[in-house]
């Protein structure tokens, strides 16, 4: 969590000094809780107040505009949280898929090596068995 001290652009630096040879997969998420959103809400409130005065008859409404605004704001915050969770789950899924594909490559490689060794051993055994049953005596005439 970082509190910005100055307005403007910021840079993110990911240190790779641990190992520059091995491959890494990095996921990160930026969540902005800035005062800019508050300023936009204040501007919306100014427009909303004028709309409330024009649209709200004094005694005919059972539900107040503030309650509607509050429920909409609650839904908005819950939707933002669900978007964050879905993004996080997508990142986990991508990481796991990358690991599975890497494991699949290794399994395929070592399976091919084992198959080649198995065929080599089978050929050696067949040649050994053939040599055992060959008549090594030469026929003299």
From TrEMBL:
<feature type="transmembrane region" description="Helical">
    <location>
        <begin position="109"/>
        <end position="133"/>
    </location>
</feature>
<comment type="similarity">
    <text>Belongs to the EMP24/GP25L family.</text>
</comment>
<feature type="compositionally biased region" description="Acidic residues">
    <location>
        <begin position="36"/>
        <end position="59"/>
    </location>
</feature>
<protein>
    <submittedName>
        <fullName>TMED1 protein</fullName>
    </submittedName>
</protein>
<keyword id="KW-1133">Transmembrane helix</keyword>
<dbReference type="GO" id="GO:0005794">
    <property type="term" value="C:Golgi apparatus"/>
</dbReference>
<keyword id="KW-0472">Membrane</keyword>
<keyword id="KW-0812">Transmembrane</keyword>
<keyword id="KW-0256">Endoplasmic reticulum</keyword>
<dbReference type="Pfam" id="PF01105">
    <property type="entry name" value="EMP24_GP25L"/>
</dbReference>
<keyword id="KW-0732">Signal</keyword>
<dbReference type="InterPro" id="IPR009038">
    <property type="entry name" value="GOLD_dom"/>
</dbReference>
<dbReference type="InterPro" id="IPR036598">
    <property type="entry name" value="GOLD_dom_sf"/>
</dbReference>
<feature type="domain" description="GOLD">
    <location>
        <begin position="1"/>
        <end position="32"/>
    </location>
</feature>
<dbReference type="GO" id="GO:0033116">
    <property type="term" value="C:endoplasmic reticulum-Golgi intermediate compartment membrane"/>
</dbReference>
<dbReference type="InterPro" id="IPR015720">
    <property type="entry name" value="Emp24-like"/>
</dbReference>
<dbReference type="GO" id="GO:0005789">
    <property type="term" value="C:endoplasmic reticulum membrane"/>
</dbReference>
<feature type="region of interest" description="Disordered">
    <location>
        <begin position="35"/>
        <end position="59"/>
    </location>
</feature>
